[in-house]
Design a protein that fits this description.
Length: 343
């Protein structure tokens, strides 16, 4: 490592596993003294043990960030004490992510998600930012989500909380930036600590991206080091998309469907036949069985409309795709029920 954070102190919430643990360990490897925070003392201490074994400095502070101002202020006080009186870097990583259809979400679940994902970081920033402003320096890193800008069915509660965090990032940059405090966010793609099983839900969400698969926590940790270091002094209110291209890019090279029915909707072929939710624009669910389109033509086309075949006893042709430049006719599509795990 390059000691990019030498002499700095950092508090990382939700640091007992996955992204948070990777950030804490990488910060320590870059020279920072780190407070690892989370609910599990056993897992938190394991992260601290790895930091110390690698020659770094760290300690664990247990915290149940329930969204109350008291809980956030208590963690801020304990972190300052453990770090010698100041926190130079705050990483708001702790979060919960229950999903499900909007009508099925219980009031208690909605309260929990907004308490942990929005109110807890809000009050942590309120507790720690004033001292950063007084010193004229500090780094605050929030954890957003690509789902905050790309609609996903069944994720309204979680992604709306992350949309709030990305909005707070910009507001805090305006509020604290003039005093020398950098506030930015990272928007991760699907990140896993271990190799996933083929066809897992998280993996399917990354099909159709340039990388075509989930990432590992170290890619987020690398971005966090940049935002925590002096290298980011000119960066305010930004959200770094470390998501394998999920929000900004669609490529033809999507993985094939596990059921053998053709390209996934993330590919050019899939997008030609399907809307983002796996249904034709007139509401009929289809699955394209054609896997070999004309890349030299289709790859350059801008699809302006899609017409899908309706339900008949047998379907021999579906989806006439038209553009301002040319037309391509797909040869077959089967009509059936949408399997959310494929999209």
């Amino acid at each position: 490592m390059t000691d990019r954070l030498t002499g700095k102190t950092a508090l990382v919430t939700g640091a007992t596993s996955n992204i948070g643990a990777a950030i804490a360990e990488r910060f320590a490897a870059e020279g920072a003294t780190v407070v690892v925070s989370g609910r599990s003392a056993e897992r938190g201490q394991a992260v601290v043990d790895r930091i110390i074994a690698a020659g770094g400095r760290g300690s664990f502070v247990a915290a149940d960030l329930d969204g109350t101002k008291r809980a956030s202020e208590l963690l801020a006080d304990q972190a300052r004490e453990a770090l010698g009186g100041r926190v130079d870097i705050l990483v708001n990583n702790a979060g919960v992510f229950p999903g499900g259809p909007t009508p099925a979400i219980a009031e208690e679940t909605a309260d929990l998600v907004y308490a942990v994902n929005v109110k807890a970081p809000f009050f942590l920033v309120a507790a720690l930012a004033p001292a950063m402003v007084e010193r004229g320096t500090g780094k605050i890193i929030n954890m957003g989500s690509w789902g905050a800008r790309l609609g996903i069915a069944g994720s309204a509660l979680y992604t709306s909380s992350k949309g709030a965090i990305e909005s707070l990032t910009r507001a805090w940059a305006a509020e604290f930036g003039p005093a020398g405090v950098n506030v930015n966010a990272i928007s991760p793609g699907v990140i896993r600590e271990t190799e996933p099983e083929p066809g897992e839900r998280g993996e399917t969400l990354m099909w159709g991206t340039p990388v075509g698969a989930s990432g590992r926590p170290d890619v987020i940790a690398a971005a966090a080091v940049y935002l925590a270091s002096d290298e980011s002094d000119f960066v305010h209110g930004s959200v770094l998309d470390i998501d394998g291209g999920r929000t900004g890019v669609a490529v033809r090279g999507a993985a094939p469907r596990p059921d053998g029915l053709g390209d996934l909707p993330g590919s050019v072929a899939g997008q030609a036949a399907l809307s983002p939710m796996g249904r034709c624009h007139d509401g009929v669910t289809v699955r394209s069985t054609r896997t070999e389109w004309i890349p030299t033509v289709v790859g350059r086309m801008k699809f302006s409309r899609a017409r899908c075949a309706r339900r008949y006893a047998s379907v021999s042709r579906a989806c006439a795709i038209a553009s301002a430049e040319s037309k391509v006719i797909s040869t077959t599509a089967s009509i059936g029920s949408s399997d959310p795990s494929l999209y």
